[in-house]
Amino acid sequence: MQPAGAVAGPEGPSAPQLALTQLREHLTDWMRHEPGARAGHDPEELHQLRVAVRRIEATLGVFKHQLPSRLANARKTAKGVLRALGTARDLDVQLMELRQYCKQLSASERSAAAPLEARLKAERARAHSLMLGMLDSEATRHWLEVLNLASADLAAAAVPQEPRAATVMPERVRARFRKLRKAVRKLDARSPMEAYHLVRRRAKQLRYSIECGAGLFGRPAETMLRALRRMQDSLGAQQDAHMAKIRLAALAAEGTPLPPETLFLMGRLAEHHLAGTREVRRTLSRAWGKVSGRRWKALRARMQELSDAASGELPADPETGVVAPGMPIVVPPEAELPTPPTEGAPLRH
Length: 349
Hints:
Number of helices: 11
Shape: globular
Helix content: over 70%
Distance between the termini: 27 Å
Largest sheet: none
Radius of gyration: 22 Å
CATH class of the largest domain: Mainly Alpha
Strand content: under 5%
C-alpha cells in the first residue's frame, strides 16, 4: 500500500512515504480499538490499543530524522500515553493469571482467592478511570490531531529528493540490533530485573523497526520477527511475574486486612511467580541464540543487498525498488513462508 499523494519512484518508497504508510495503519488501529478499550469488557481491546501506540512511537523513533518536527515531537506524548495504558493492562494480566492459577486449586483454596481477586478488580477499576481521563485529556486529543494533520501534510509535501527507505531502514535496524546485543552481553547470574527489562525493551524496539521495513526485507524479516516474538514473550512473562510479585507484597502490607488463608495463598502465588522469573533466566541464552544466529545473518545479508541497490552498486527492480529478480537472497534453511507482522493475543506484552 502506498500513501495517498505520494507515489514511490523506481528506487522504492522514500523514508517519509514508508513512515506515513505505517502511521496511517497504526492510527487506524487506534480508532478501531479505542472504543473497546474504553468499555473495558474485553482485555484484548486494551492490549491492541497499547500495541497501536507502541507502533506509533516506534515509527516516530525509526524515522525521527526524516519526519517534520511536529511528528518527531509527538513521540514524547506517545510514551506518556503508553504509561497510562500500561497500569490498566498490567492489572488485566494479573487478574487473568490469577484466574488461570486458581483452576488447579481446590474449591476451598479458590474461595481464599476471592478477596484477592476483589482487591485487584478494585485497583483495575481505578486504573481504568484514570485511563479514561488520559484518553479524554486535551493533551491526548491534541496528540492524535497532530498525528493526523502532520501525516496529511507529509503526504502532500513528498518530494523525489527524500532519502529512500531502502537506505534508511537497514541503518536503523542494524543500530537497534547492536543496542540489543550490548544489553544481552551485560547480563549475568546476578543481573537485576531492570537489566532484563532493558533487554526486553531493546528487543521490542528492534522488532518494531523490522516490522516497519518488513515489506522491503521479505522472508528474512519474517523468520527474524518470529524469533524476536518468542524472546519478547518470554521476557514479558518474566516482567509480568515480577510486577505481580511486587503488587502482592504491596497488597499484603496495606492497612486493609485480608483473611489469613488469602495471605497464605498470596505467598504461594508469589513463589509461583518467582519460579517463572527463574525459568526465563535459564532459557534466555537459547532464545537469544535463535535471534542472533542464522536469522540475523540472513536479514543482515538482505539489508546489505537493499543498501547496495539503493546506492547503485546492484540493479533494482523498477516495480518494487528492491534487488532485481535473480539476485541471491540468503534465507535460513528452516525459514517458513512469510506471514504478515500481526500481533497475537498473548497475556504478555
